[in-house]
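Repro:
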Amino acid sequence: MPFYPGPGLGGHCIPIDPFYLSWKARQNGFECRFIELAGHINGSMPAFVVERVGEALNSQKKAINGSRIHIFGVAYKKDVGDMRESPALDVLELLHRRGAVLSYTDPHVPTLDHGELSMKSVPEAEASRDSIDCAVICTNHSAFDYVEMPNRFPLVVDTRNALKNVPGDNVFRL
């Protein structure tokens, strides 16, 4: 099964199970540097996404603090409602700490309670009517209208390459 770059790893096994292998290998005198490095890179991806959001907003002379940022997809993978270890939760938390006004759309996750965040999913059409400063695609659910996204939002940060065939000068990619 192929894996593609994104905002980080989520789920119940991929982010965790390789570290069990690394731990067991160390017990037997082997070093698994690649597993440790991959874990470090994957763990830093949510912060990198927030940096890209900041760069996108800066291109419009705006800061994250006070900007209205809408997240598309909070589940850990496409077309599921499972949020275990979802990188979108880390992205939301980091944006919240930096003062962003947050909302999200996820047809598979109607409500979200994570740390200080308690939110309800906003329908995609409603999100496009709000004065959103930046949309961020964290999970590329099939239900989202990607073709129209760059037309409905002033800035779009695409962490899943969902807009690879959609033109737009306002699209920022990883």
